Known about the structure:
Blueprint: H1 3-15, H2 23-30, H3 32-63, E1 69-76, H4 79-88, H5 95-101, E2 106-112, H6 115-126, E3 132-138, E4 151-160, E5 165-176, H7 177-190, H8 197-243
Parallel strand pairs: 2-5
Antiparallel strand pairs: 1-2, 3-4, 4-5
Helix pairs in contact: 7-8
Amino acid sequence: xxxxxxxxxxxxxxxxxxxxxxxxxxxxxxxxxxxxxxxxxxxxxxxxxxxxxxxxxxxxxxxxxxxxxxxxxxxxxxxxxxxxxxxxxxxxxxxxxxxxxxxxxxxxxxxxxxxxxxxxxxxxxxxxxxxxxxxxxxxxxxxxxxxxxxxxxxxxxxxxxxxxxxxxxxxxxxxxxxxxxxxxxxxxxxxxxxxxxxxxxxxxxxxxxxxxxxxxxxxxxxxxxxxxxxxxxxxxxxxxxxxxx
Length: 245
């Protein structure tokens, strides 16, 4: 993200009346270099975490019949999202305060095949000695009221710069394919402001029901996978015993 381009964009929005206050504009102009540096550090932290999960994925593919990691996604929070969060939580408007109080500026999303894979991958990741767990929210065992499920980890990882080492916070979300599909649809509904209230309420209800259905599907598919793995183990044992005859 380039802060200078962002400032130019916001100036245009001010001219057409899309922004109601110029306090953020002043803040960005006065702290342009510091903000750009901060975001670059977060991008480096994302690269560190992505590399860790890619290495785990390679190791899993060697030691298992399948890798529990399906895909790895990353994102850096946009300035508009940061502003929204600063306003919502009444965070003091300074670079230091933003970095201290907003824990999901950098984000990694790891998509797994089955719910138990999520905990396997998370455990292997957190065992690494340069990863420090700051907070954990388990929305799989304790889903949100709307049905949202995911495992959220806030961690710090060191990035090594020219003259220093810095610990940077990153939010890691681990989900199954079904959880991710549901969350993507729920996100679209959340920001669909022009929907009539009655339609919105009906869709919210349907999504909550879908969350329960998809969670049940995850567990049933996991059960099938376990039974297949057990059957394969029994077959392998039988073959091994025949080889000794």
